[in-house]
Amino acid sequence: MTVARKMQMFAEKSSWIRKMFEEGARMKAEFGAENVFDFSLGNPDVPPPEKFGRILRQLAAEDVPGVHGYMPNGGYPHVRESLAEHLSRDLEVELDAGDILMTCGAAGALNVVMKSLLDPGDEVIILAPFFVEYNFYVDNHGGVTRVVPTDREFNIDLQAIEEALNEKTKVVLINSPNNPTGQVYSRRSLQDLAELLDSAGEKFCTTIYLVSDEPYRKIVFDGCEVPSIMATTTNSIVVSSYSKDLSLPGERIGYLAVHPEIHEKRSLLDALTLANRILGFVNAPALMQRVVGQLQDVSVDVAIYARRRKIFCEILDAAGFEYVKPKGAFYLFPRSPIDDLEFCSLLQEEKILAVPGRGFGAPGYIRLAFCVDEEVISRSGEAFKRAMQRAGSRDGATR
Ligand SMILES: Cc1ncc(COP(=O)(O)O)c(C=O)c1O
Asked: Is the CB of 215 within 6 Å of ligand 1?
């Protein structure tokens, strides 16, 4: 067999994503794209801000020698300086250019962090429901994920984390605003978590890093605040990108920021920089670094997502779904009235594409992404109602 056994297993495990993608394409070809309600993909459809195109054209037209060359592995110093100035406000600590590394998206940043921190067998605590790729990123670098549940509203369950901590725990990885739940962790809960990790670190004579994955930081609703983990503990790293807030996922541009007083800062930064190089990224895309360096003050029009959330919530209410209203990101994560896989196929019969919660470590839920036109959401109301009614009669029949 040519392909490694582990990769075969991974392909098998994640095959339902591919299957759904293929199924969506088949349904759109058969019924017409306008007749399929595809809520399966978190691929932002809101256009980047106008300033993005302007700056991109301006920089592309400049004829500066060397702009296409290699650079320091951590990225252009002037771009990191611009980020540091902006992030110091957002992350509530004084950062300088040296605390920041430009990366190939948040995904690249997470791999760089795991490569730098994990020895074989080290554990990374992730909170369910989780972004499914976390398992792969941790495994890429010899680590092991330990999945811990959240509470009924998808908030941090401190006791569950406490029970999972042990001498092998190296990282606790959180994601706020969250994919798939839209939950944003409160300042109080982050402070409690940070205290717990600091005291567990002392108990196990180790350092436990709090890593926060925040590509949705700027996509929040009703004036929701996203508190900074850096205000709670020095052993913290924030990873993020411009994939969602500038709608640039294909451009693969992101960054990581380490707390200015993080434990063994110099050697950690050296390791992160080396990881960026030897993972084969070498450096984040040059042109995009220069572009985002000038786009720190803009983001996509979040009001578009806010309107879609409102319409979608009304539709789910009318159909009788139970759900926690998302505070940020662009997903809804309602409870499935029956087994989530079964419900997703039933939804599919109504031409609705959703992702089963088990793909995020949370069976019994479904994920609906609102990266689609408002009009697609509005037209899906009757189909959701029919699916709920059919699920209701199925559920009754099996009792
Ligand atoms: C929670 C979360 N983290 C990381 C990523 C990866 O983002 P990027 O495109 O910046 O690598 C995504 C993408 O969907 C995400 O939802």
From this structure: yes
| 366 burial type by CB count under 10 A (0-12 exposed, 13-18 middle, 19+ buried) | buried
Phi, psi of 177 (to 5 degrees): -60, 145
Contact yes or no for 224/185 (Cβ under 8 A):
no
* Beta-carbon contacts of residue 10 (< 8 Å; ≥ 6 apart): 136
- Closest of 255, 336, 334 to residue 91, by C-alpha: 255
Longest alpha-carbon distance in the chain? 73
d(CA 180, CA 326): 9
Q: Percent of the chain beyond pLDDT 90?
A: 91
- Chain segment 94-145, per-residue pLDDT in tens: 999 999 999 999 999 999 999 999 999 999 999 999 999 999 999 999 999 9
> What confidence category does residue 394 fall into, taking pLDDT thresholds of 50, 70 and 90?
confident
- Token digits for 66? 């060397």
Distance 106 CA to ligand 1 centre (A): 6
Say if strands 37-38 and 352-353 run parallel, antiparallel, or are unpaired.
parallel
Residues 257 and 236: beta-carbon distance below 8 Å:
no
Mean pLDDT of the chain: 96
363: exposed, middle or buried (C-beta count within 10 Å: 0-12, 13-18, 19+)? middle
**Residue 5: partners with Cβ closer than 8 Å, 6 or more residues away:** none
Among 173, 167, 124, 118, CA closest to 141: 118
The CA angle 150-13-174, to the nearest 5 degrees, is 30
Report the C-alpha gap between 337 and 4 in whole angstroms. 38
Residue 120: phi and psi, rounded to 5, are -55, 130
pLDDT of residue 20: 78
Confirm if 374 and 301 have CB atoms less than 8 A apart: no
74 lines ligand 1 (CB under 6 A): no
CA distances from 208 to 79, 195, 237, 257, 270 (A): 29, 11, 11, 17, 19
CB distance 42 to ligand 1 below 6 Å: yes
207: tokens are 């350092």
Q: Which residue has the tokens 């995904």?
A: 107
> Nearest C-alpha to atom 16 of ligand 1 is from which residue?
179
pLDDT digits over 213-269, tens only? 999 999 999 999 999 999 999 999 999 999 999 999 999 999 999 999 999 999 999
